[in-house]
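so i finally got all the pieces together for this one. its two components total, 518 residues if u count the protein bits. some of the lines might not be protein, just check the labels. i wanna see the whole assembly predicted at once instead of chain by chain like last time, that was a mess tbh
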Amino acid sequence: MSAHYQAVNWNRQKYIYDGLLAGGVVGYLALFVGTSFLLHPNITAETAFIRGLGTAALVLLTLILGIGPLCRIDRRFLPLLYNRRHLGVTMFLLAFSHATFSIIQFHALGNMNPLVSALTGTWRVPPIDRFPFELLGFLALLILFLMAATSHDYWLATLTPPVWKSVHMLVYLAYGLIVLHVGLGALQAERQTGLTLLVGGGLIVVLGLHLVAGSRERAGDRPAAAEEPDGFVEVCRVDDIKENRARMALVGGERIAVFRYDGRLSCVSNVCAHQNGPLGEGKIVDGCITCPWHGYQYLPDRGSSPPPFTERIPTFDVRVRDGRVFVNPKPHPPGTRVEPALITG
Amino acid sequence: MNHRLRQRHRWMVLSLALVLPAAFFWTVSSRRLDAGIHQLPAALADPPPGRGEVLAVRDILLGSTIVNSRLLLDSASRQLTLEITPRTDPRQPDPLLYWSPEAPEPESGAGVPPDAVLLGSLVGTRTRSFPLPREAATEDGSLLLYSLGHQSVLGAASLPTQSLLAQGAGAKP
């Protein structure tokens, strides 16, 4: 848990995750190419492989974009999120291979530079079927490369989580470009019902999951109601918080998480220092707040990771009165110890 | 995720939800699947009919495709022209028609002979005219159907132009 560069910290779960991922990709490609030859006996192996790589990248991107909201809706999907960056890098490699083989197959036999040919060959608008869809794919590939190249904790720590997340939010732009790349490219050339359903269905799933999860999230962004004369605000009742769990609230423009454990309450920022994961959706494990995304841990009363780790998050004053929980919106510096509030009665 | 990032995320998703389905629907609904044929230059879409005396009218089997053919001779220029009308679309990737003085075995994996002359594409069932090379007037040859996609000769049929020229109009049906 430090900012020093190091290769992937392999563990058993990562081996299983990546093994399933590699097997899934190889199996998908074999199934796609085999099915293509059955349905279209005249298709060439190169074309079938290029299409297989492209659709594999699209399926993987759809899955990647669905994991976040799925985890919000149902916590059983959290194991998928643990190694999501490996999915992203794999997806970039598939998309890059698709682009490379496409350029070799369709643009390398002329007297023009293949890259120039790919990016300028169909530059005529309108009609729609001559739209330069290759350019859309190229722009998406640049974004995916930027994301894949920074998909490491070194870059996360160096860029800081807010900047890193801003960069990685470009995935939505990349997704939009890819949908249009397919719509203005492969779907213009022939009537591919399967591909149309894949893109259209994926679009419905991705946007539907995000809208459902977003509407649930929005409820958590409602500011806490009553404010006390000394600035404390009421966030919930003590009984609203289960043992070793948290209640989240929007206080002072940011989310906080009030944890209940061993007859006490402590309040910390809801934002994990690692990847800005939602700490309030985690739980207390071995006396530590444990982030649901990657398992980073913090002592609830100090907001700091147990030694030798060095991550720290802001803490907040919290008190209990008449069974109601109040929090001071003014945060303490990250890692500052705050006396927990005792739950009496 | 902090509040500002969450709001940015929300706006990005909402923007995507508003724009992307409509854009995708537009790309699918406005596609013109026959655009390639309609956009062919007029000279290619409607080739001028061959001129001259009809030397022969034959049905030729090229691979699995039967084509109606007429061999024409322009007596002024001594130019031989082959008029071709496939009965069915060859439905092969990038089908090309060659004239060749020799005929390789179809499906043998052999490529086009080095002295073969490309006549043109054989996509679709349109009638088109191919001027034959000068050599066709002095020696018999063959028509080859070659798939660029498969990189192989799919069919071959003899084209005895020399003997047909010798017979003259007597070969007409």
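Residues 234 and 326 of chain A are 4 Å apart (CA to CA).
Chain A touches chain B at residues 42-44, 47, 127-129, 162, 165-166, 169, 172-173, 175-176, 179-180, 183-184, 187-188, 190-191, 196, 199-200, 203-204, 207, 210-211, 214, 217-218, 221, 250, 253-255, 271, 276, 278 (CB under 8 Å).
anyway lmk what u think
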